[in-house]
Design goal:
It is a single chain. This protein is of the alpha/beta class. It has one domain. 16% of the residues lie in helices and 32% in strands. It contains three helices and 13 strands; from the N terminus they run H-E-E-E-E-E-E-E-E-E-H-E-E-E-E-H. The strands form two sheets. Strands 1, 3, 5, 7, 9, 12 and 13 form a seven-stranded mixed β-sheet that branches. A hairpin with a 4-residue loop joins strand 12 and strand 13. It is globular and about 50 Å long. It starts with 12 loop residues before the first helix and ends in a 9-residue tail after the last helix. The N terminus is likely disordered.
Length: 203
């Protein structure tokens, strides 16, 4: 599935010398760059626990076609996978694919994410995700193969959790704040539904 341009945490020294790849551990922050001759712009395959922030550039690369998405591939086995997709502006679309055997996967998507999400197994969504992203996505729906917007595909027998990365603060969602927003929103909608305002029309 991966090409010779892949970057792997398990890369050998010979691979590094042959292709000039920068080795990195499946932890910390990695800047993603468009690779013109590669199938994937970022690849990480490792049995280790993954906890990474993938920084999407705010510009389109010089040789990157206008409708060409950045393609990100992450594969694991049973260790937890945590990925934060950090994108300052929605100009650069991406396709993220996560493949694992039984890993529990947690993904933070940018709050301006608009696109498709497909996953296997059981999924949960944080308050921030519901508040800011849920209305702009299509979940597990088939669509045109010519789709060029944001897209996420996750396959694992473990649990999948989607959270929100706030593009305004350049940081993961603040759980307490988003939970309160969610609670007040639900309360307001409930009140508006239950109250009969027809009494205002009475003489």
């Amino acid at each position: 599935m991966t090409s010779s341009c892949s970057i792997s945490a398990e890369s050998s020294s010979s691979l590094f010398g042959k292709f000039g790849l920068l080795r990195h551990e499946p932890q910390g922050t990695h800047k993603v760059h468009y690779k013109e001759s590669c199938e994937w712009d970022f690849v990480l395959e490792t049995p280790k626990e993954i906890d990474m922030s993938l920084a999407i550039p705010h510009y389109r690369a010089r040789h990157q076609p206008i409708n060409q998405r950045l393609r990100l591939f992450v594969a694991g086995e049973s260790s937890p996978i945590k990925l934060k997709i950090c994108r300052p502006v929605p100009r650069c679309k991406f396709y993220l694919e996560v493949q694992a055997t039984s890993s529990n996967v947690t993904i933070w998507l940018p709050s301006d994410f608009r696109g498709r999400i497909c996953y296997s197994g059981k999924a949960s969504f944080s308050a921030g995700f519901i508040n800011r992203i849920m209305a702009n996505i299509r979940l597990n729906e088939g669509g045109s193969d010519k789709w060029t917007g944001d897209e996420v595909f996750v396959e694992t027998e473990g649990t999948v959790t989607f959270r929100m990365w706030d593009v305004h603060t350049n940081a993961p969602e603040k759980v307490h704040r988003e939970t309160l927003k969610r609670l007040f929103s639900c309360s307001r909608n409930t009140c508006e539904t239950r109250i009969n305002w027809d009494f205002l029309l009475d003489d």
